[in-house]
């Protein structure tokens, strides 16, 4: 009898502890993604990856966001290839951002940026905020 109570108690602790752990790690049924990149040439493979993840995740596919930081922001102006990829990203409901701190550091006027591109004040901080919200993140 004494051993039975011990076994039942251990079993309940394991079951309840595992359920609580699962609730803490899973914030939603959706898989949300964010990529922080220092190279605008990565947008094409990022789009391909988003397409593959959407197919794989099915109904569990959530948001996909990309944030460009660093010197690469200076290459965005008048880049027709990048603008075409931005249009494709918009069609895939992908949000593409550029780091405001990087724009300032490399003296890029936000008004010269193409349509479908939004500015966040601090790209790295923004990425951490999304990570805290449960986004799966990758830095390339």
Automatic annotation (TrEMBL):
<keyword id="KW-0732">Signal</keyword>
<protein>
    <submittedName>
        <fullName>DsrE family protein</fullName>
    </submittedName>
</protein>
<feature type="signal peptide">
    <location>
        <begin position="1"/>
        <end position="23"/>
    </location>
</feature>
<dbReference type="Pfam" id="PF02635">
    <property type="entry name" value="DsrE"/>
</dbReference>
<dbReference type="InterPro" id="IPR003787">
    <property type="entry name" value="Sulphur_relay_DsrE/F-like"/>
</dbReference>
<dbReference type="InterPro" id="IPR027396">
    <property type="entry name" value="DsrEFH-like"/>
</dbReference>
């Amino acid at each position: 009898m004494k051993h039975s109570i011990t076994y039942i108690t251990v079993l309940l602790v394991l079951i309840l502890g595992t359920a609580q752990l699962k609730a803490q790690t899973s914030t939603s049924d959706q898989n949300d993604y964010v990529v922080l990149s220092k190279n605008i040439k990565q947008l094409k493979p990022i789009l391909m990856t988003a397409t593959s993840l959407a197919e794989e995740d099915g109904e569990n596919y959530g948001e996909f966001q990309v944030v460009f930081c660093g010197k690469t922001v200076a290459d965005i102006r008048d880049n027709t290839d990048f603008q075409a990829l931005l249009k494709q990203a918009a069609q895939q409901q992908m949000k593409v951002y550029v780091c405001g701190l990087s724009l300032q550091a490399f003296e890029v006027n936000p008004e010269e940026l193409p349509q479908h591109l939004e500015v966040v004040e601090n790209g790295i901080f923004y990425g951490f905020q999304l990570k805290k919200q449960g986004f799966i993140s990758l830095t390339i």
